[in-house]
Amino acid sequence: MTNMEQAEESHAADPINASLSAEEKIGLYRDMVRIRRFEQTTLSIYQKGKIGGFLHLYIGQESLAVGAVSLLGDTDHVITAYRDHGHALAVGMSMNECMAELYGKATGCSKGKGGSMHYFAPDKNFWGGHGIVAGQTPLGAGLAFALKYRKVPGAVLCFLGDGAINQGAFHEALNLASLWDLPVIYVIENNGYSMGTSQLRSTAHPQGGLAQRAEGYGIAWDIFPGADVYTMRACTQKAIDRAYKKSRPTILEVVTYRYQGHSVADSKHKDGYRTKEEIEAQKTLNDPIARFKKILIEEGVLAEEQSKEIQAAAKLEVDLAVKFAEESPFPEEAAITEDVYYEVDEKTEAGRTGRHFFN
Ligand SMILES: Cc1ncc(C[n+]2csc(CCOP(=O)(O)OP(=O)(O)O)c2C)c(N)n1
Ligand SMILES: [Mg+2]
């Protein structure tokens, strides 16, 4: 039996899931619903021209961020790429600060200067939100190095896309993660596509899957489907245990699907590089929220009525976030250089002179 087939079996009885209270299970469901509703609204306000810039939606992948982040404690860290709304809300960032950031408002999490790709919450151990494909992967190794250097038990979840695994920076990060025994977990969110092309057309890999490349670095790996939040939790927990007990890295490849285009400007995602039928089949057969709702109803943990209340509460929360964002002020013109570079804010030599290395 392959890892993928094993993973298709239910993980409801795994200790990490069996120990969840009914309230905690509903919490996982609520978080996925909140993320989806948030993003559906961002798409509609984008289309109305109320926000601009980039917008990469996570719809269809919610179980990955929610499942993995639900396992983390106070000394664990998260870092991801530009498709970051789901991770940000999963770590507990508020919809207000996330929505205001999309509007470019001073009340946004990055004071309106980052936008969709640059959500940040250091107080929640959430280190972004990065626009350069694989740019977050050496940083993920760095966060893990900091834990080890400071002798703090912990793990780092570094999320990346399937397209990112071909970047040189990722391989350099893997080399050091293995060489220095770093407690970092690279979670490849394999949604089958990068920008305008498929994984099959762009990536050479061993038969076991993308994550099997880990063997070249002596790193443990796993591959599993991500639509079921219980599977996500059970398989990620093994990697977290490895990080804590052995201070060793892991590469996880999680098979998932994005419903929307790469970004909102991707007209070819329906009947271009993929078919409408494929998208519809994924929505019908593999939707993480519908799936978990069915499981929870079967378990007797959730009732249809309560699910409707959760949906309504999420809608209200997003509507209030939109109101908050629309009523918030833009950053002051005078603040244009603040909160952009550490050196400028801290008035270091480099910040004062505008020069880093050279005279
Ligand atoms: C170094 C670099 N090259 C190219 C781009 C343009 N780009 C943005 S996203 C993307 C595709 C990445 O796909 P994947 O890693 O699968 O992530 P997904 O969008 O599917 O979440 C590309 C090529 C970039 N941002 N950075
Ligand atoms: Mg991808």
Your description of this structure?
By secondary structure, this protein is of the alpha/beta class. It has two domains: 3-328, Thiamin diphosphate (ThDP)-binding fold, Pyr/PP domains (Rossmann fold), CATH 3.40.50.970; 330-359, no CATH class. The protein has helices spanning 3-8, 15-18, 22-47, 62-69, 85-90, 95-102, 136-149, 168-179, 199-202, 229-246, 276-286, 288-299, 304-327, 342-345, 349-353; strands spanning 77-79, 156-161, 184-190, 220-225, 250-255. Strands 1-2-3-5-4 form a five-stranded parallel β-sheet, sandwiched between helices. It is globular, with a radius of gyration of 20 Å. The model has no long low-confidence stretch (mean pLDDT 95). Bound molecules: thiamine diphosphate and magnesium ion. Residues 161-163, 191, 193-194 line the site of magnesium ion.
Q: How many domains would you count in the coordinates? A: 2
E-strand count: 5
Low-confidence stretches: none
| Molecules bound to protein | thiamine diphosphate, magnesium ion
Main beta sheet, described? 5 strands, parallel
Give the proportion of residues in helices.
40-55%
| Computed Rg | 20 Å
Number of helices: 15
Strand content: 5-15%
CATH topology assignment of the largest domain = Rossmann fold
Assigned CATH superfamily of the largest domain: Thiamin diphosphate (ThDP)-binding fold, Pyr/PP domains
* Broad shape: globular
Q: If strands are numbered along the chain, what order do they take across the biggest sheet? A: 1-2-3-5-4
Distance between the termini: 62 Å
CATH architecture of the largest domain, please? Answer: 3-Layer(aba) Sandwich
What is the CATH first-level class name of the largest domain?
Answer: Alpha Beta
The chain-level mean pLDDT equals 95
